[in-house]
Specification:
By secondary structure, this protein is an all-alpha fold. It has 2 helices and no strands. It is 98% helix and 0% strand. The two termini are 33 Å apart. Keywords: Coiled coil, Cytoplasm.
Amino acid sequence: MEAGFSEMRNELQSWDAFWRRIQLECQQLHIELLKMREYKDMQEIQIKHQSSCVQGTEQLEYKTTDLLLLAQSPEHQREELNKVFHFQIRNQQSHCSEQERMKTEISDLTEELHQKEITIATIMEKASLLQRQLKRELEIKDELLAKQQLLDFQYKVIKSENTHLKEMV
């Protein structure tokens, strides 16, 4: 009987260890989630910074172009203007594609973050359920142990009475 309770106690301890591993994994997932949010925020800041840098660069290039146009002949001015215009278009297209790539990356990271949040919530629900089940089983096993001890005591009392009655007979 003692071996059965020892086995039950070992099983409960293994469940408790399993529960602790789940909690540790949840903590690690939460830390990873925070890191991903931080990375996402940094990406958004970088996109905003690049956007403001490009605007400043564009204004400087326009002023430089204006000065060059004033100093050169009309035909040469047109050629230079076309070159600058095409250069600006390429830069703008490149910048736009870079922004789109970053937006896509941020969107992907946000989706991954959302999936990890769902996973953490699911694990926490399961862990909570397992903890409640573990507590119920522990209570039941404690009750059974108390009943077993009571039965053992009653058995010893009856056995003692039987021995006493046999001696009397």
